[in-house]
Amino acid sequence: MTATVEPVIVDDDRVDDDTLGLRGIFDRRRRRPWGLRRRILATFLIGATMLAVLLAGTTYGLASSNVVQQREEAAIEATRRNARTVQTALRGPAPTAQPAVDALVSFGVQRALIWYRDSWTAGTGRYQADALPQSLVDRVIDDAVPAHIVTEVDGETNIAVGWPLANDAAYFEFFSLDEVSSTLRSVRLSLILAGAITIVLAIITATIASRRAVRPVGEAARAAKAIAGGRLDTRLDANGDPDLAVLSESFNDMASALQERIERDARFASDVSHELRSPLTTLAGSIELIQARRDDLPDRAREAVDLLSSDVARFRTLVEDLLEISRFDAGAVTLHTDELLLTQFVSHAVSVSSMPDTPVIIGDRADNMLIVADRRRLARVIANLIDNARLHGGGAAEVRVEIPAAGRQVAHIRVEDHGPGVPHHERRLVFERFARGGGAGRRAGNDGSGLGLALVAEHVRLHGGRVWVAVRADRTDGAAFIVELPAEDISADLDGEDPA
Amino acid sequence: MTVDTRILTVEDDERIRTVVKMALEDDGWTVLEASSGEEAIGLFTIHQPDVVLIDIMLPGIDGFELCRTIRRTSDVPVVMVTARDDTHDIVAGLEAGADDYLTKPFENKELSARIRALLRRVRPSGTPHARVVFGDLEIIPDEGKVLCSGTEVHLTKTEFRLLCEMAENPGKVFSREALLDKVWGYDYFGDGRLVDVHVRRLRTKIETDPAHPRHVVTVRGLGYRLQS
After folding, report:
1. Is the pLDDT of residue A20 over 60?
2. pLDDT for res A24
3. Could B177 and A348 be called an inter-chain contact, meaning their C-beta atoms sit closer than 8 Å?
4. pLDDT at A3 over 60
5. Are A400 and A416 in contact (CB under 8 A)?
6. Please, which pLDDT band fits residue B15 given cuts at 50, 70 and 90?
7. Nearest to B26 among A278, A292, A340 (CB)
8. Which of A197, A276, A333, A425 has its CA 20 to 30 A from that of A238?
9. Structural domains of chain A ordered from first start
10. Any chain A CB within 8 A of the CB of B173?
């Protein structure tokens, strides 16, 4: 059962974009504010990024100062130790520092320099006196205090540590900081990686969280849709999220109130139906009994009975149609759908209508279209359209079953007449309740209830289709009432079957 | 129509009952009237009418219950009459065992047509076969008997006629409209559920597994077919 599709009644076969409101949708989309989910995601992302950067920065800062400091301390300690060795080697006093340097080299200390008796003695390689910053030399030799400084030697970062010795001598040593740099590089890399993982996790968490946060909204929307679609007993889970309890409770209250009201209306319609039908049964039956004895009646009585008879018939149609439409208004209509073969169904519906001889013309590819429909209601649609053609269109000329376009899963039932046609400005109005053809006024002997086309629109809407008036397919005078219904081609399923 | 055809009409609205009685008497039938289900059961056991008309809304025992009570002892044709075209009532009436239904207000000639269709000889109109066999299902139209794996199955007159109509043309697909016309005599747009409910009931009686019927199969979009 569905009641969500509004009947789109357009002026012609062509449906332009504006009728569908597409432009409006696109305009709105452009200006649409960010959705809840996107906002949650953005908040999470910004928060996580800031946190990751802050943590990584602090960690890196602490780690680097710590590592450098440790390295410095180690360097100073090593220098102090080596200086003592050198001091011992120089005792004597030794003529040169060369034996001391050689002793150091033999321990594996390569980057040593000794200032002894106003000259430099160096170890191996590039680590010569000119590589020492002057400020360090001044401090250690002139001021006789230990000192250290970070300096570049041939593009390599080093700590140069100086240690004053006795007799105006001094010991200097270079310590490479390359290890420290590479340690810090890997720390940096780890932190960047950790930050990236944090952000990815934040995105995942945010997606899940936002989906969860939005889920109750989705449930509420689905429930509202279900109620609109007629499943009136749909309720939200009131024991769910306590934060949303207010929403679900008020939603459920609303749904209950709605259900109660609709059921009351439906019950009323049903009671009215019963109360009206019972006397009508007696009335119609009695008149039929009198009509059967019509020949025994005096002329005037016969005339009166004929009048009575025709108005009882009209009244009956009116009551039936009013009851039917009140059921629509009460929202108490349920479809009892079957799968029907469209052409077969239409032919049969026409054959039991008020003009059974109306030709049914089957268009290309229209065979083997399956529709899912309530046969009573759809038969009523066809019967009402044929009645309309009979009363206002000078008799139905033909009924066509057509497939408007391949690929679109719809079928058209066109009821065409040779009447005066329906002027443009009345094409919507004819589907209004109690609409009467403009100008024509209230015709004598009109046996329509004035609700026929309104019921057609309601029935078709309930079937997920639409109905509109256009000009005849062959462009001659007359009107065409077109019913569009969802349909499915089942040619493949039907091979070899012979419809009875 | 035989003069002594008796029709029991159960209706609490006296005026409607009177009109119905007059109309049916015009057709030459004898009419028995009951204004409640209890009264109807009494009249039914004494007179054994040929057709029963039951209004669903009755004081005391309602129409459904009355129909079920009658069905327990008899396969007399039953027509349900309802003032509400609430589809619930209609299906419930058919499930309770009614053969057909009418919605108020009905025309006298419609009522007569329905009754006449129910009173028609059980035997279908086509070429007579002494017996028709569909696998384990055997139909003997002349004796009004259906055997399922050799055991006789009890069908109501309408169920039997429905089966016989389809047996006339084994393998042919019968649309609901065609069956309504042949079995119930509908020449207007009848209700497909009338056929569906009867097919369902028929299946529970003649199929080994009614959920997966082997004999009375549904053909999507078209109708039903009888096969072995």
Report:
1. no
2. 46
3. yes
4. no
5. yes
6. very high
7. A292
8. A333
9. 33-229 (3.30.450.20), 240-329 (1.10.287.130), 337-494 (3.30.565.10)
10. yes
| A268: nearest CA partner in chain B | B84
- pTM for this prediction: 0.60
Nearest to A352 by CA among B36, B189, B194, B139: B189
Side chain identity at residue A317, one-letter code? T
Of A344, A376, A490, the CB nearest to B175: A344
Residue A475 pLDDT: 80
Long-range contacts of A297-303 (CB under 8 A, 24+ apart): none
By the 8 A CB rule, do B118 and B159 touch? Answer: no
Residue B35 has pLDDT above 90, yes or no: yes
- Asked if A349 is an interface residue toward chain B (Cβ–Cβ < 8 A), one would say yes
By DSSP bridging, strand B145-148 and strand B137-140 are antiparallel
DSSP state of B209: S
Token digits for A143? 């001021």
Q: What are phi and psi of A240, to 5 degrees?
A: -75, -135
Can you tell me which residue has the tokens 């109660």?
A260
Interface of A with B in 355-394 (CB under 8 A): 370, 375-376, 379, 383
B215: nearest Cα among B170, B179, B177: B170
Backbone angles phi, psi at A496, to 5 degrees: 85, -10
Lowest mean pLDDT among A40-49, A216-225, B48-57: A216-225
Tell whether the model's pLDDT for residue A307 goes beyond 50. yes
Interhelix angle A178-228/A245-292, nearest 10 degrees: 30
Instruction: Enumerate the residues of chain A whose CB falls inside 8 A of the CB of residue B172.
Output: 498, 500
Chain B partners within 8 Å of A292 (Cβ): 26
What dotted CATH number matches B132-226?
1.10.10.10
The nearest alpha carbon in chain B to A336 belongs to B87
Has the ipTM of the complex gone over 0.90?
A: no
What is B6-119's CATH topology? Rossmann fold (3.40.50)
Q: Does B132-226 match B6-119 at the fold level?
A: no
- Give the start-to-end residue ranges of the domains of chain B: 6-119, 132-226
CB-CB under 8 Å, B19 with A278: no
A308, β-bridge pairs: none
- Of the candidates A278, A379, A498, the beta carbon closest to that of B173 is on A498
- Amino acid letter, residue B215: H
Contact with chain A for residue B122, Cβ under 8 A: no
CA dist., res. A418 & res. A476, Å (int): 8
Tokens for A442, please give them.
């209230």
Distance CA A89, CA A351 (A): 128
What is the β-pairing status of strands B78-82 and B100-103? parallel
Higher pLDDT, A446 or A405: A405
Confidence grade of residue A382 (pLDDT, cut at 50, 70, 90): very high
Chain B residues lying within 8 Å of A288, measured CB to CB: 23, 107-109
